[in-house]
Structure formats: C-alpha cells, structure tokens
C-alpha cells in the first residue's frame, strides 16, 4: 500500500459565513484530503476529514460535510465570561537547534490577547554558546542539560502568578494564554491547565502516521477536570454536562502535553519542580510533563483541560525523525512510571494493578492506543515504541546518575 498522501490542514470558524477552502499545493503532490478543525468564535467543536478533488472545497459542500460529521457539536456555543486574569509568564525551553521555528514561535507569543504577561526563553545550550537575542522575549541561560532543568529555571525567574509552557516548534493561537488564564480565574481550586494540540501541517506520510500513532494527546473538544478519587484512581469530569467516570491514576492520555500546559507557580515550586532526570535532552527523552501532572493529582490537587487553549504543532517530517521520536516517547513513558514509583514506592502497587491490562492493549487493535491506525500504518513504528518502553527504566536510572554530576 502506498503511503498516505498530503492533507490540507485548516481551521474554520463556523460562527461566520464559510468561504471556499483553497486546496492548491503548488509544486508538490496534490492534496488527497482535508483535515479541518471546526470552531465557533474560537471554541473548537471537532475535527472533520473529507476528500479533496481539485483545488478547492466549495463553501456549501464544506458546511454540509462539517454539519454531518460534527453532529450535535455543531451547535455548541462559545463561552464568554470576562474575568480578572492572573499575571502570567510564558516559558519556552529550547536548545536552539530549530532557530527559524523558535523565532516564529516567539513572534506569535509577543502578540497574545492578554493584559499582563511576559515571555521567557530558556537557552538550554552549554555555557559559552553564542548569545541568543529574540525581540520581545527575556532570554535566560540554563547550561544544565535537559528540558526539565530549563523548565525549572524558567519557573525560578518567572514573575507571573501562572506559568505557561510551550515548545519552540509550535505556533500558538492568539487567545491561547487568555483561555488558560480564564480557566484559572474561573476555577480557583485548579492548579494546572492543559490545552488542545493540533497539527500545523500534514504534508508528509510521517506527519500523518504521527497522528495515527496514539502517542499524542487523546484529543478532546469539551472542558474536563481531573482529581484524585481513591488511592490509585482519579475522577474525570466533563465540566459542561457533569458526566463523570473513575479511571486509573495512570491513564494519562487526556491529561495533556508539555507543549501546552500551565501551572500556578507556587504549587509547582512547592513540590520541587520538574524531575531533572526526565525529559528531552536527557537519556529518558521525555515524561517530565506527565510525571508532574500525576504528582499533582496524587497530592490531591485538581487539574483541568481547556480545549479553547490551542497550539499548532509541527510534527516530524521524515520517517527517520518520526521513528526516533516514537522510540523516545516509549522511553519517556516508562521512565516516567519508574520515576513516580521511585519517588513514592506506594505507586508500585497501583502500577501492578494496571500494567497487565495496559500490556494487553498494546496488542489489541480495538484499544484506544491503536484505534486510529489506518491500514498500512508501519509496524516498524510500533516496534520502535515497544523497544523504547523496555529501555525506559534503565534510561531513568542512568539519567539520575548523570544529574548528580550537575548537582552543586
């Protein structure tokens, strides 16, 4: 089977009359389909996919298909609740390996719809690297390797009551920070808010396969809250209709991702910040974001997911990059589980209760992990992820040893 063809990625706001959706792809393979995020006054309603025949999808066809695929979600109203917003700091950790995307990211961050905020870029290169200057951002240096060390430095220097994190390869929606701040203002008991991550482009097979991999956020379009419900369980509540379910504390798929998360600064500082043996730039290659979210839940704090806080992520473009990324995600996930178990050994009992079912889900084609994989999804990627999972515990122990060298 041939690799999946390019998809036109678009954001459409149905609160306004729709226009024809241009689908020309100059000088490249023609788009075979369209991936469309439908919003109403900036609030996401859902995703629709449709074929592309020619260079556009005419407005009547676009609206008809969006209504059909979205169903009742089409009528969901936008929320508008003006509130006094907390001061905020936006922290972008970077190793400056992607300078053009970093500049694009910061340029968008300087134009956010928010009354009181700052942008901090944490330069995570070795000491002695050439100085980094970015208009509109305060650049601070953190030579200790790893994204967690960079996040912690950003936290320590931040002036805002809330600290929002994103990555250097994303483009944020203009209302991204306002959506996060409004959630904190609306729900004073919430200590962390995550948001919606969508693809910026789906031009290559690797980018489309990432969407199918199950390695990203379990993308949802309704606000959620999470809080502890028993020793190793959490209560997931849909805040609009009150729908509740109790699930494993380690069912992290809906909790959020490090490219789109914010915290009350004093709470994260009180728990000791991010685990510096986890994350990109260390042998574990990830997991620091989920480790923090699980730690906060385990301590009895409430978390929230706010889909109106949108960032657009640039997925890896080549198969080699994707395979390396998926392998790293596997390492990061089990490294994260190892970290929380070593920090609080009681988690070993909770993990023992869920690991057998989780292992079975890796082979079950109907599981949430594999549900979106189309025919032709490379089995090589699944094997790379599994190899990473097996390597994760050792990677964490190795990373801890390395971190001791950097301790003062």
Q: Briefly, what is this?
A:
With 408 residues, the protein is α/β, with parallel strands linked by helices. It has helices spanning 59-70, 99-109, 147-157, 176-186, 205-212, 265-270, 288-298, 319-343, 347-361, 379-406; strands at 7-13, 21-22, 33-40, 43-51, 56-57, 88-94, 117-123, 138-141, 162-165, 170-172, 190-199, 224-228, 233-238, 244-248, 261-264, 302-313.
Strand and helix layout:
Blueprint: E1 7-13, E2 21-22, E3 33-40, E4 43-51, E5 56-57, H1 59-70, E6 88-94, H2 99-109, E7 117-123, E8 138-141, H3 147-157, E9 162-165, E10 170-172, H4 176-186, E11 190-199, H5 205-212, E12 224-228, E13 233-238, E14 244-248, E15 261-264, H6 265-270, H7 288-298, E16 302-313, H8 319-343, H9 347-361, H10 379-406
Parallel strand pairs: 1-3, 6-7, 6-9, 7-8, 11-16
Antiparallel strand pairs: 2-5, 3-4, 9-15, 10-16, 11-15, 12-13, 12-16, 13-14
Number of helices: 10
Based on secondary structure, the structural category is alpha/beta
Assigned CATH class of the largest domain: Alpha Beta
The total number of structural domains is: 2
Which sheet architecture does the biggest sheet show?
A: 11 strands, mixed
Order of helices and strands: EEEEEHEHEEHEEHEHEEEEHHEHHH
Mean pLDDT: 92
Quaternary form: single chain
Low-pLDDT residue spans: none
CATH architecture descriptor name of the largest domain: Alpha-Beta Complex
């Amino acid at each position: 089977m041939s690799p999946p063809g390019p998809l036109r990625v678009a954001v459409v706001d149905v609160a306004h009359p729709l226009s024809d959706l241009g689908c020309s792809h100059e000088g490249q393979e023609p788009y075979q389909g369209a991936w469309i995020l439908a919003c109403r006054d900036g609030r996401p309603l859902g995703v629709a996919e449709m074929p592309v025949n020619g260079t556009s999808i005419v407005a009547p066809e676009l609206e008809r298909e969006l209504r059909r695929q979205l169903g009742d979600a089409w009528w969901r109203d936008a929320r508008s609740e003006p509130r006094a917003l907390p001061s905020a700091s936006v922290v972008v950790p970077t190793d400056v390996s992607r300078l053009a995307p970093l500049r694009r990211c910061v340029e968008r961050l300087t134009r956010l719809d928010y009354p009181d905020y700052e942008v901090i870029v944490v330069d995570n290169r070795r000491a002695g690297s050439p100085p980094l200057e970015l208009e509109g951002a305060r650049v601070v240096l953190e030579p200790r390797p790893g994204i967690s060390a960079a996040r912690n430095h950003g936290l320590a220097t931040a002036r805002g009551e809330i600290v929002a994190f994103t990555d250097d390869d994303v483009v944020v929606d203009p209302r991204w920070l306002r959506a996060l701040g409004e959630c904190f203002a609306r729900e004073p008991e919430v200590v962390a808010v995550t948001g919606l991550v969508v693809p910026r482009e789906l031009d290559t097979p690797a980018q489309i396969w990432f969407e199918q991999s199950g390695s990203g956020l379990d993308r949802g379009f309704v606000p959620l809250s999470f809080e502890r419900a028993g020793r190793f369980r959490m209560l997931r509540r849909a805040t609009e209709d009150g729908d509740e379910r109790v699930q494993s504390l380690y069912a992290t798929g809906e909790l959020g991702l490090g490219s789109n998360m914010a915290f009350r600064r004093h709470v994260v500082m009180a728990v000791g910040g991010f685990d510096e043996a986890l994350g990109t730039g260390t042998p574990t290659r990830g997991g620091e974001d989920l480790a923090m979210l699980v730690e906060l839940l385990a301590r009895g704090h409430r978390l929230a997911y706010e889909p109106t806080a949108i960032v657009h992520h640039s997925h890896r473009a080549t198969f080699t990059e994707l395979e390396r990324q998926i392998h790293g995600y596997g390492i990061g996930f089990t490294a994260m589980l190892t970290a929380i178990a070593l920090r609080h050994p009681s988690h070993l009992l909770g993990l023992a209760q869920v690991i057998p079912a989780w292992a079975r889900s890796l082979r079950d084609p109907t599981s949430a992990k594999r549900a979106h994989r189309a025919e032709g999804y490379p089995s090589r990627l699944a094997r790379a992820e599994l190899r990473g999972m097996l390597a994760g515990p050792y990677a964490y122990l190795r990373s801890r040893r390395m971190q001791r060298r950097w301790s003062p």
